[in-house]
Amino acid sequence: MKKKILVTGGAGFIGSHLVERLLKEGHWVIAMDNFHTGTKDNVLAFLNNPRFEVLRHDVTEPFRIEAEQIYNLACPASPIHYQRSPIRTVETCVLGPINCLTLARDIHARVLQASTSEIYGNPIMHPQTESYWGNVNPIGPRSCYDEGKRVAETLFFDFHREAGTDIRIARIFNTYGPRMSHGDGRVISNFILQALRNEPLTIYGDGSHTRSFCYISDLVEGLIRLMNMDGFTGPINLGCPEERTIREIAELIIQLTNSKSDIILQPLPIDDPEKRKPDIELATDVLGWTPKIPLEEGLSRTIEYYKPIADDNSPPTKQPR
Ligand code: NAD
Ligand code: UDP
């Protein structure tokens, strides 16, 4: 069954891959974006597709669009972007879901929230299961995003309980791949660009912090399975359970790029979670989902994407808001 699908944040990294996959499946897709961190380049390849439309709109402003499914991805996702305008980040985290949920309630659409592993904060339980309530600083520099995303989950469940809205919540762990915005400071894009330019790789702290990285096509598969699973709201973890230290990631990227780069240590950002690894038993049981792309393969594909960008030394193009 071909559906009308709205993807907020559709011009971003995850959004554009989701749009691409949905179009390939024959759906009618509208990407809504204010181009805060996303770019038109990410959706340029789909513009000639008659089943695709881009709408420049801010998710914090109410909207009315016909859709059977809504994926709410609109939100800056990298620490430097979401901390640059924290009040705006909270607004996007809270008003975006309210607008998506109100529309879903009124037109009887199903709505999926792109939540995050950040809702677990600096986790004491390891690996993190969905039943863990987290360890989040409510007043720190990351709180605008962490607490904003937690309120979003609350809103999803309140609409579900109060109005019967058909909701899905995906807790997305670190995801990487082509079209990650270069210049947004995330570790994979930073390290790849630094390695390709033979510049020092900047490890924050001593490199012992851990993350678990999921390749973009695996994540998109998980999101689509969750959206189309009847009778299951989540929240559900979507991520790769293979945990690596940041130093291991740096060394692997130096090796895969044949780089002459050194590693330098820089101060650790405040409240940077020490470890992060999803327990994905629920996703495996309910969705039959596990990530398939090994880290080395995903990194190699991502490195290919960044090669022309690394040759171009100009700073990333920022679109006016
Ligand atoms: P991204 O920055 O590439 O994409 C976010 C998109 O949302 C951008 O195109 C941006 O322009 C748009 N946007 C931001 N604020 C908006 C607003 N107010 N109105 C309309 N559009 C707006 O980030 P991403 O990595 O693709 O993340 C997408 C979603 O997934 C986010 O909600 C993020 O919190 C979540 N997530 C991502 C990761 C990850 O590792 N990438 C991990 C956990 C959760
Ligand atoms: N990080 C790093 N060097 C960089 C960028 C990030 O050591 O150039 C670290 C960062 O401190 C964190 C981890 O890598 O411990 C992942 O950072 P990222 O911003 O990609 O994601 P998040 O912190 O949101 O998980």
Q: What does this protein look like?
A:
By secondary structure, this protein is α/β, with parallel strands linked by helices. It folds into two domains: 196 residues, Rossmann fold; 91 residues, UDP-galactose 4-epimerase, domain 1. 37% of the residues lie in helices and 17% in strands. A seven-stranded parallel beta sheet has the order 3-2-1-4-5-6-11, sandwiched between helices. It has a two-stranded parallel sheet with strand order 7-10. Strands 8-13 form a two-stranded parallel ribbon. The longest helix has 22 residues. The radius of gyration is 19 Å and the shape is globular. The protein starts with a strand and ends in a 10-residue tail after the last helix. The structure holds nicotinamide-adenine-dinucleotide and uridine-5'-diphosphate. The site of nicotinamide-adenine-dinucleotide (NAD) has 28 residues, from helix 1 and strand 5.
